[in-house]
Design a protein that fits this description.
The structure holds 2 protein chains of 2 kinds. Chain A is mainly α. Chain A contains 8 helices and no strands. Chain A starts with 13 loop residues before the first helix and ends with a helix. Chain B folds into 2 domains: 157 residues, Periplasmic binding protein-like II (D-Maltodextrin-Binding Protein, domain 2, 3-Layer(aba) Sandwich), CATH 3.40.190; 91 residues, Periplasmic binding protein-like II (D-Maltodextrin-Binding Protein, domain 2, 3-Layer(aba) Sandwich), CATH 3.40.190.10. Chain B contains 10 helices and 11 strands. An 8-stranded mixed β-sheet of chain B has the order 5-1-6-11-7-10-8-9, with helices on both faces. The longest helix of chain B has 19 residues. The two termini of chain B are 33 Å apart. In chain B, 41% of the residues are buried. Classes of the chains: A mainly alpha, B alpha/beta.
Chain lengths: 223, 263
């Protein structure tokens, strides 16, 4: 138990770490946005009237939520080239992450839609709102408010899950740590350093989500 | 501790060899008079030596052994050996020659004698003919797959710091990235490149440039100067007429480099 930490030896890799943090941040933000859009469309499909769309949405959600992200990643990166779709490591990572996030987002949003009672929709329609306006101001607003903590938590989880994409050679934070480890053999230092980086990112995202919640739901409710 | 133990064992083996067969090493004349040569080859080191479907030994070292017996004009008696027992087999006079993808070290040379190298294992960058790269310096935007932290990764990173190197967790994933077309080149051992080509029809893994190679030497008992000279001559001629290079191409997939060293 007399291990001497040598964090100083990692200083020459500062550029690598910064690059890794930026790419992880980029992956996280793009995945959250794309995943939310996919999730919204799929949730609308799965609670909609068209049976074919409902079935398709179920198949998508169940097949993604019941298989490992790593497998989905390998299908996109190593599998798709066989049918002529060749994506770079970072693009493949973004697509697989977004598809994954979409399925979880869809399920959370669906629960939100279902929590808004039918009488609310009828009330909105009888006040003269159009179908679109009812959806936006009555259903979506209440649904998102109800599921916001679950969605925020899922966003943080997908941010942490981005570390998996290093296995297809995407050069995000975890990949950089493995690279530094392979050059310095300072495993403890390398992984401790990125543990702290992930922690800072997570806490940052949580603070941001809390701020958004206050802006979007708390203040508006007082008006 | 282990070093100490292994020294005692080695010393005991040597003493045994010396007392059991004092100056009894079969030199060239004895081998020819006996009409047979005892050669040790590996059984578990493809492509150097392994057993085929009919349980027959095959490989580069097996071909080499047969060629040597043929050139000597004697019968060959093949003995399957392992990495651990190949030196003791020679030291205790059970074999005349060991051809087993063996690297030469000063420690080993205290117990057995080495000829000039007859083959080499190499690490390099491999890919299709359509990519015209002949040295690390020419690598620019071509993508190269490599297993992170391996010798080939460290060497390539040093030789071509600006190359587009994509690092994967292990050799299998790096190979998968190349085979699925995700990268244009693959940095690996020549034996692996050959194996990938044999198992994947259409995969083109021709050597672009070699970064490091480890020569393999033939080992014989000490005290056989005539046999040592003859084997060196055999290897020398084989290097000059290209037959050793052909053998390398047949089993390892790459010809021998032009400036191949000799002892």
């Amino acid at each position: 138990m007399d291990y001497q930490f040598r964090f100083g030896a990692l200083l020459r890799f500062t550029d690598e770490i910064v690059e890794g943090v930026l790419l992880t941040l980029q992956f996280s933000v793009v995945t959250m946005i794309c995943g939310l859009i996919i999730g919204l469309l799929v949730a609308m499909a799965s609670t909609g009237r068209v049976k074919a769309l409902r079935v398709a949405a179920r198949v998508y959600v169940e097949s993604i939520r019941n298989t490992p992200l790593l497998v989905q990643l390998f299908i996109v990166f190593f599998g798709l080239p066989s049918i002529g779709i060749r994506l770079g490591a970072n693009t493949a990572a973004l697509i697989a992450l977004s598809i994954n996030m979409g399925a979880y987002g869809a399920e959370i949003l669906r629960a939100g839609f279902e929590s808004v009672r039918q009488s609310q929709v009828e009330a909105g329609r009888s006040l003269g709102l159009t179908v679109g306006q009812t959806f936006r101001h009555v259903v979506l607003y209440q649904a998102v408010k109800a599921i916001y903590p679950a969605l925020a938590s899922q966003f943080v989880l997908i941010m942490l899950a981005t570390s998996v994409v290093s296995s297809i050679g995407a050069t995000e934070l975890f990949n950089k740590a493995a690279f530094i480890d392979s050059r310095t053999y300072l495993s403890f230092e390398s992984y401790t350093l990125i543990t702290l980086s992930y922690l800072v990112l997570t806490l940052g995202f949580r603070a941001l989500f809390a701020a958004i919640y206050r802006l979007a739901f708390v203040r508006r409710a007082h008006r | 501790m282990f070093k100490y133990l292994s020294r005692i064992i080695a010393a005991a083996l040597l003493a045994g060899a010396v007392s059991a067969a004092p100056a009894n090493a079969a030199d060239l004349k004895e081998i020819i008079a006996a009409g047979k040569v005892r050669i040790g080859v590996p059984a578990d080191v493809p492509p150097f030596g392994s057993v085929d479907a009919n349980n027959q030994p095959v490989g580069l070292d097996v071909d080499m052994a047969n060629n040597i017996a043929k050139a000597l004009g004697v019968e060959v008696e093949l003995q399957q050996i392992t990495g651990a027992n190949r030196v003791p087999y020679l030291a205790t006079d059970r074999l005349d020659i060991v051809i087993a993808a063996m690297g030469a070290t000063p420690e080993r040379a205290l117990q057995i004698a080495f000829t000039s190298p007859y083959a080499a294992l190499s690490i390099g960058v491999f890919g299709p003919d359509s990519i015209a790269v002949t040295s690390a310096a020419e690598l620019t935007d071509q993508t190269v797959a490599v297993a992170r932290g391996t010798t080939q990764d460290l060497m390539l990173s040093e030789l071509a710091p600006n190359a587009n190197i994509q690092r994967f967790d292990d050799d299998a994933t790096a190979a998968a990235a190349f085979l699925s077309g995700q990268t244009q080149l693959l940095a690996t051992a020549d034996v692996v490149a050959k194996d990938l080509m044999d198992k994947n029809a259409g995969a083109e893994l021709n050597p672009k440039f070699i970064m490091q190679f480890s020569p393999c030497y033939i080992g014989i008992q000490q005290g056989s100067p005539e046999l040592l000279r003859w084997l060196d001559t055999f290897v020398h001629v084989g290097l000059r007429d290209g037959s050793l290079s052909e053998l390398s191409e047949k089993w390892i997939g790459t010809p021998l480099p032009a400036n191949f060293p000799s002892i």
